[in-house]
Amino acid sequence: MTRLDTMDCEFPETLADALELMADDTTRGVPLSGGTDLMVQWAGGVVAAPQRVISLAGLPELKGITLKDQCVVVGAGTTHAELRASEVIQARLPALAAAAATVGAQQIQARGTIGGNVANASPAGDLAPALVITGGAVVVAGVHGERRVNLTDFFKGYRSIDLRADELIVRFELPVNPDGSREMFRKIGTRSAQAISKIMAACRIRIEDRTIRSVALAVGSVAPTVIRLTELEAWLTGRVCDEDTIAEAVRRTVSAVSPIDDIRSTAAYREWVSGSMIRGFLDAFFNAEARERR
Ligand SMILES: Cc1cc2nc3c(=O)[nH]c(=O)nc-3n(C[C@H](O)[C@H](O)[C@H](O)COP(=O)(O)OP(=O)(O)OC[C@H]3O[C@@H](n4cnc5c(N)ncnc54)[C@H](O)[C@@H]3O)c2cc1C
């Protein structure tokens, strides 16, 4: 096993330098952001510690949260603490702010990054549902330039993403919550902190005059990768949000997910809770819209 104190660490100061190192398989190392996934995997022997790592911590191109043309641009090196504290994220992407606030606890949020969370590609990665409901994209780069990939397509399968060995995630481009829309994120874990999700979900919805005008729904930890409930979204759009609609939405959610039994939960529980989460979103938003109409 490679000891951490004998590991070769590169500290590039620009993205271009980091990409040069990544381009050549004799200089390529494992990209390291906050290390909150990697260091645990190495220490536990889940993944062998590599000979070389490339620290992304000093790359200015991976920092920052900016609002541009109704899109929030978030650098891949943005930490969960920065996400949850950002007024732009709180106002424009409230589900993402809520998801970041549930990751680990303060220490993990101070180190762990959005890029690391997505690249780790765990089905239980908490940011994924909040990201995919935006309909946004991830921008990755290699020495030959950038590629923009729709976030839903980026998550390809169990621990698999659309990222080549010589590429890095640079930023996320996330369309904001449009006027009149609401968002919510919910996570079920064993505790309220330091708990990996049993299941989590996010919703972006616009209801007017009791009718669902647009909706995006995503659930995590119920399939090999985060899933957008696109068929349910299409079915819900244009319907009056009443008890019959909500009951049918719950049934359709349960048949759309394919969870497994594992150390954290059972498939049966996950199926049941995924339906309950969708019910909770629709109830909450319908009641909020009804209050405003009064
Ligand atoms: C105690 C504890 C509690 C946790 N709780 C949660 C939780 O509640 N919810 C949750 O979702 N996660 C949780 N995690 C997991 C982890 O903290 C998060 O996934 C975190 O966001 C990972 O980010 P990082 O910057 O630390 O990634 P790293 O560990 O640095 O990297 C993770 C992976 O991403 C790759 N990578 C990193 N940045 C890039 C980039 N820019 N481009 C390409 N590849 C990149 C690395 O090579 C590696 O494969 C927890 C971890 C611990 C130790």
Question: Can you tell me about this structure?
Answer:
By secondary structure, this protein is an alpha+beta fold. The protein folds into three domains: 4-55, Uridine Diphospho-n-acetylenolpyruvylglucosamine Reductase, domain 2; 63-175, Uridine Diphospho-n-acetylenolpyruvylglucosamine Reductase, domain 3, CATH 3.30.465; 182-293, Enolase-like, domain 1. The protein contains twelve helices and 14 strands. α11 runs antiparallel to α12. The longest helix has 27 residues, at 267-293. The protein is globular. The structure holds flavin-adenine dinucleotide. Residues 30-38, 40, 56, 76, 103-104, 108, 111-113, 115-117, 119-120, 125-126, 168-169, 194, 196 line the site of flavin-adenine dinucleotide.
